[in-house]
Design brief:
This protein has 103 residues and is an all-alpha fold. 62% of the residues lie in helices and 0% in strands.
Length: 103
């Protein structure tokens, strides 16, 4: 007489154990994500949204613009260059006249 047909009993037992573990793992993951305040179905989307809206990723306030050169600064710089001998008397007079006329 031939043996019973169908899958062996050990295979069925392993399949049932695997199914129980898979369902238990899914429930545990659902509970864990819910306890952390995440949507259990789309946690990655929520985490990405938190990262995008993070204060750490916002650009810093733009650097203040340096103050515009005033005529006094330009003339003081020309005087300094002249005193150090970097520019000649003719260049100093020409640059001062140009700076004064540009205002």
């Amino acid at each position: 007489m031939p043996g019973p047909s169908g899958p062996p009993a050990g295979f069925i037992a392993l399949f049932v154990i695997f199914a129980i573990l898979a369902i238990g793992g899914t429930i545990a993951r659902f509970v864990y994500r819910s306890s952390k305040g995440l949507n259990p179905f789309f946690p990655q989307d929520q985490v990405e949204a938190k990262i995008v809206n993070s204060e750490l990723l916002r650009p810093a306030d733009p650097a203040p613009e340096p103050p515009a050169d005033t005529i006094e600064r330009k003339l003081a710089e020309l005087d300094d260059l002249h005193d150090r001998g970097v520019i000649t008397d003719a260049e100093w007079h020409e640059a001062r006249a140009k700076a004064i006329s540009s205002t």
